């Protein structure tokens, strides 16, 4: 029997495997309390492997139905929508199935979802940015990432940085390093982790010398979490040397405008 390709069917399938105890745990894990980064996010208690398994059954979900999932206040519904979107973009990027018009449509759809606040927790960003926006921009101008990196919205800035993972996997660290230097003074710990993670991947996947050059220039200003993430794969002596660099005061905040 053919699976009904609707948002309601996805929601029903996820609700069928939801666990109230997991919902309580996930609400705490993703910091949904007052004043926390995920304030107001709603969980029904579906773990990521289950969400992926459900999303796989709805590979043909039309974009309006994906949008309905992204419009939901329920976190797992939004994640399922993004996983379906990833799969659609991958199909449109295949050697035999490449469709540049569809790739454009899907990337535009994703960017609008980001700007509308639908991709609004770190796991949602990390599960989607590189696979849609990053993959789309791989051989295109990347000015939109400058705009996102300049946003006052945490999740837009994280999308900018995590999109560069696609570039790193293709051997290009230029945008990662550029955004990393711009975001040294970002106030959010989740951004320190994101930038540090991508810097670490620069050293692992592209060129260790590029990472070391960045650290030589910026280690004294890097937030400690960013520095820890960036250096955690280095040998103990090198890691300790960078982490022992005397701290410098942060530069005066720059305007968030004019980067695009």
Estimate the global geometry from the Cα principal axes: globular
Low-confidence stretches: 251-260
Could you give the order of the helices and strands? Answer: HHHHHHHHHHHHHHH
* Total E-strand runs: 0
Number of helices: 15
Distance between the termini: 49 Å
SS strand fraction? under 5%
Structural classification: mainly alpha
Keywords:
globular; 0% strand; DNA_alkylation; Serine Threonine Protein Phosphatase 5, Tetratricopeptide repeat; mainly alpha; 260 residues
Question: How would you characterize this protein structure?
Answer:
The chain is an all-alpha fold and 260 residues long. It has two domains: 1-128, no CATH class; 149-248, Alpha Horseshoe (Serine Threonine Protein Phosphatase 5, Tetratricopeptide repeat). The protein has 15 helices and no strands. The termini are far apart. Residues 251-260 have low confidence and may be disordered.
Task: Record the SSE blueprint.
Layout (H helix, E strand, L loop, with lengths): L6 H10 L3 H10 L18 H9 L6 H8 L4 H18 L7 H16 L6 H5 L3 H8 L5 H7 L4 H16 L4 H9 L6 H18 L1 H11 L5 H8 L4 H8 L17
